[in-house]
Amino acid sequence: MSKNLVIVESPAKGKTIEKFLGPDYKVLASFGHVRALPSKQGSVDIENGFEPKYHVLPESKKHLDAIKAAMKGADRLLLATDPDREGEAISWHLLAALGLDKKNPGIKIQRVEFHEITKDAILYAVDHPRDIAGELVDAQQARSILDYLVGFNLSPFLWKKIRYGLSAGRVQSVALRLVCEREKEILAFKDQEYWTIAARLCVAPGQEFKAGLVDVGGKKLGKFDIPSEEIATALKTSLQSGSYKVSRITRTEKKRNPSPPFTTSTLQQEASRKLGFSARKTMSTAQKLYEGIDIGEEGSVGLITYMRTDSVNLSAVALKDAHDVISAAYGAEYALAKPRIFKTKSKNAQEAHEAVRPTYIAKTPLELKKYLTPDLFKLYELIWKRTVACQMAEALLDQTSVDITAELSLPLTTSQFAGSSRAGLRAAGTVIRFPGFMKLYIEGLDDQDEEKEGLLPVMSEGAALKLHELLPEQHFTQPPPRYTEATLVKTLEEYGIGRPSTFASIMNTLVERKYARLEKKRFFPEDVGMIVSDLLTAHFQKYVDYNFTAGLEEELDQVSRGEKEWKPLLKEFWEPFISLLKQKEGEVNKSDLTTEATDELCPECGKPLVVKLGKRGKFIACSGFQEGCKYTRNVDQDGEVVEPVVSDEKCEKCGLPMLIKDGRFGKYLACSGYPACKNIQPLVKPASTGVVCPECKQGELIEKKSRFGKLFYSCNQYPKCKFALWDLPVETPCPKCGFPLLIKKIYKRKGEFLKCPKEGCDYNSSE
Question: Is 360 in the active site?
Fold first, then answer.
């Protein structure tokens, strides 16, 4: 019997840790959380000081039983859950779920913490145990209860006022507001035309470069000073007649430093930009790298440090390893004499003590490639390059700016430039004198490609230039871009909203709840998302305010530092929140949120048409619905009417063209003669089996799909005939009872065989 029992969260790393610790240690997994607040009303006793009523998760009972059995005969219980608030709380919950008495547990209980799964880190953690940090547990409890209080009170409010099944979350609702407000900015945006003029100039044959027009007659050009093609053409005509020479050359040396090593949020952002990974995929892939990968003779090894962190620190060992790798691979001039230290921006970077980095920097991505899947390799390579690059020498760049004067023989005649006979152009270029860290890695940029370094030919002041071509170009101002996962994470972090470990689940919730959709990696709010956001912003403005949410995060951080009590924090939040909610219950009217008036009258009954919110978004309906008028019409995402598409099919009942329409189960055909003819048909005709229905003997059995997508076969005379089968019918009479068809069944054990579907007949061709 092992004397020491170690509990981790995930079984994936258990064997690796057990190998490091030896035969006196047994490692078991809790498989994540073991207790939680039940998903029902009353799970927090508000009257009794916000006392949580936790319950053991059903799926955790077998894991707890295994831990209890392993504790018999063990001298020490080591709680090695993840090194963050959530991991601290899981250890605390684990003791409660095991029923261990705090004063007399009957076993020595210690908390151990490690940030990488390496032998040295594990052995050090076991040799330096501590007690469970009560402040971190309190902060996590406060966060869970706050989220519960918001979710289980605000969500039912949305059900009553908009529709059943919606949800509101403390941080999720703020993220939704960001997405929706950006969409409103885009919809309200009015583009503005402007023009630029570039010149292709030549110093000597084969030495061309481009310069842009920057001033006319000594007046600096503003962005909108060339507002139309007419003015651009007039400028081009005058510039065509000019003589060009270099008036000034300015050279400046610029130094560029590398980006800091990855935190959780910067890893999510960069993996989105460079690898196209979603935040969720990045975290699951990083989890595998952290927990351990089998690398041949060495066995399973954790390849990166803990991936939930807001720290940019690197250990002394990591700094030395990076220095050695850089010196060996690139030479002494690329290595730093003194390590570069980065400062953490977060006010309370408590989630871990180090940045996300490779555990063994000496193990290059190419060396490990044969052991990794493509996704694991891409993410490991990204983390490795960022870590090594942050300790490489700065890059040195020569920035050259060339000012060019154009003397015009044809003075300008346009009003704002009238009489001007001189223009100025400028060309800029960058030469990388020493690449430094850029030899290995350059951080990606949001909404654009990585920087491209331009080169200019050698030239001197006073040199004459030959004009090859003038290039006027039309532009329009662009609205702000919709959020990508990377830019949304960046914005949430800048506001101090949420925590690194929650960003992936927040964005996933927005999509799963159909509040927003991801198209071409950008968030587009759905109709219901806009309405929910508008409701919360109008009536619960304080609780979806960016600064309020960020302030609440800081208060939770104060709890984790022992500077604030958690129950008074809950009380401060709860009392004004529930008071406002009760007030809004009576003030907010459902029809005001889900119905908009239009100026149009119903073509069937003459009553006003309204825009309503349905399960699939907005649609136009008759306000006389309660009186029996069923007129409806679809609208698209922009609120424009969607006209039905006329198909090539003719109605089999009246001969009029059939229209392609959208229904709750997808597209279908409907007669254009509605309401006189109410014939509808599936858009894709069901596949026929060619088998006559054995019940009505008039219809034919056709292939259909149930509402859950499962294939079945039924009579095409439905609803007159309701005969149906789950298995493929075969037009062969049963040799035992004479039933006019058999069905084809497939089992792994028996293979393919025929069976009689008639109740009471046991014919089976495999027997």
Answer: no
